[in-house]
Amino acid sequence: MSERTPLLDEHRNSTHSRPHDIYDRFTHAQKRLITSVISVAGIIGPFASGCFLPCVPEIAKDLNTTGAVINYTVGVYIFVIAIGNLVWAPYASFYGRQPVYLASLPLIFIGGLLSAAARNVFELVVGRSIQGFGASCVLSVGAATISDIYQLEERGTAMGIFLGTTLLGPPLAPVLGGWLATYASWRMMQLGIAIIGLLAFAFVAIFLPETSHPGTRGIDKYMVESLAKSLSVPHNRTHWRFVSLNPFRILLLLKSPVLVFVSLSGSFGVMAYFVVMVPLSYTLGPRYGMDTPALIGACFIPSGLGNIAGAVVSGRLADIAIIRGRNRRQGKWNPEDRLLAAMPGALFLVPCALIVFAISVTFISGKIGLTICLICLFINGMGVDMIIAPSSTYLVDLFRSQGAESPTESYVYDSATRNTFGALACAVALPMVYQVGVIGVNAITVVLALLASMLFHVTIQNGEKLRSWVDMDYTTVEDE
């Protein structure tokens, strides 16, 4: 007898269906405020990463090392974010969203101060690691906050706004970081990030309520059990206590083939971003005579604007695909409809942008070549986020029925996977450019983007069958 997923049996576990009024606890104005606060706090992680990229030669000179070593520190920062994703998520499920935000944001302040004061690479790595660990919380738990307050048909647009706003970091951070490195010091940017971390802490403390669905937090269940025990045992008082949680239990989600396929696809998209942007100071800069961090930083603007456009547009397209799919099937929900919005980015935008960029930076000089490269950076940025946004929302949708924890875990697993691959790309991008050139590196990345489109296609066409292989208690239409 084969296992059956709830998506194949829409009436299974109907007693656990979640009424829509769970999403009506907050007004539209409150939802917009919550989304805004989370989005602003989410900028810090990408901002702290992006501000380094145009300043790599200057930081290397200041710390008496090489550009490749500084790029490794960028990779370490992103890898720490991946680890932080795994650590913060279980505590967000157990204690709630707001407590972990308040615990993590002060680390950004501490890490920023240590990074600004670094006298060597080791001290820089320590400061950046603390900074990345603090910033990782909002990046992983923010998606769960969005899924707490928005129902299925609205979630893609809200997720697109969240991701799009956090991606203001890529266009703004290199510009500000490059400008400060040129006219002051790269250390000033780290001090600024420390201050932003404090401001984000204040915004969360004042404006962000707890969004977890009532009764779904682990602490709620623990307090109920403690209260019952205190009533049955004389002089036994109910009290709060810290609970140590295992961050690696998320790896149990590897049993889900659709989660593995979709998270790998998103990871290949992230690599397409970093292999182009990380070595930009050593590829685009020398080719077109841009010899200051300020000029290099300005070249990040098209990519960042493409990130924002891709996240918002794909979010809206994904919601439309969900609604049309439901109408076409007389109300039956197929979660894979959302992934249709990711196909243009993986199949066309990213591969075309990478190929044309490599040819232009290698063979076309002058203003014409620079203009073509900047257009390619915009298209690549848009394509990357057209891959990431629908896949991230899809994974949240898929596990929504299991309460507060599983949607957080599925998104966190995806985010940790993407950041791990991103860290790898940061580490190997510049050495590979030295070895095989921009054309060789981009050709390899095009293959990965096309592989991502194949994984998306397999999931879209065979999602129902893939979900039936292992019963993971996926979300049903009644749960939404």
Walk me through what this model shows:
This protein is mainly α and 480 residues long. 73% of the residues lie in helices and 0% in strands. The protein is built from 17 helices and no strands. Helix 6 (121-149) packs across helix 17 (405-469). The longest helix has 65 residues, at 405-469. Mean pLDDT is 83; it is low at 1-19 and 401-407.
Global shape: globular
Beta content comes to under 5%
Helix content percent band: over 70%
**Number of discrete helical segments:** 17
Mean pLDDT score, rounded? Answer: 83
Radius of gyration: 23 Å
| Uncertain stretches | 1-19, 401-407
Count of strand segments:
0
What structural category characterises the helix and strand content?
Answer: mainly alpha
The H-and-E topology, N to C, reads as HHHHHHHHHHHHHHHHH
Distance between the termini: 29 Å
Brief write-up:
By secondary structure, the chain is an all-alpha fold. The longest helix is centred in the C-terminal third of the chain and has 65 residues.
